[in-house]
Design goal:
3 helices, 20% strand, flat, alpha+beta, 2 domains
């Protein structure tokens, strides 16, 4: 999904540009496509490897069902908490963090400038 967003933004930048610039964008899009194919959108086949630690992971079953499952690495027999044949997994993403457009000190400084006549 992130690769799609990057490709879209590059295509928008490409519109109305010179050919030399467009060649660079085309090259960047090619690299993105190669990396995306290489990393399979972050999916790791269980045939290649399993998680190194206990924890929750995004999993894909043989029926293409995608959900979160817990992996018990340090159990007597390592196993997933979910039913069904797990064929691939990936780590959970980092939690969402809102990114402020202006940091508080800058915003406060601007507001103080206009409200206090600095």
């Amino acid at each position: 999904m992130i690769f799609e967003k990057i490709r879209e933004r590059l295509q928008k930048k490409k519109a109305g540009r010179l050919n030399l610039f467009c060649d660079g964008i085309d090259c960047a899009i090619d690299i993105i496509n190669q990396v995306e194919a290489e990393y399979n959108n972050g999916w790791i086949s269980v045939d290649d490897r399993l998680p190194e630690d206990d924890g929750s992971y995004i999993v894909c079953t043989e029926t293409k069902n995608v959900h979160v499952s817990h992996y018990y690495k340090h159990s007597i027999v390592p196993h997933w908490s979910s039913k069904g044949m797990i064929i691939a997994w990936q780590p959970l993403p980092e939690p969402y963090v809102a990114i402020a457009k202006y940091t508080t000190p800058i915003k406060d400084s601007i507001m103080n400038h206009f409200t206090k006549g600095e």
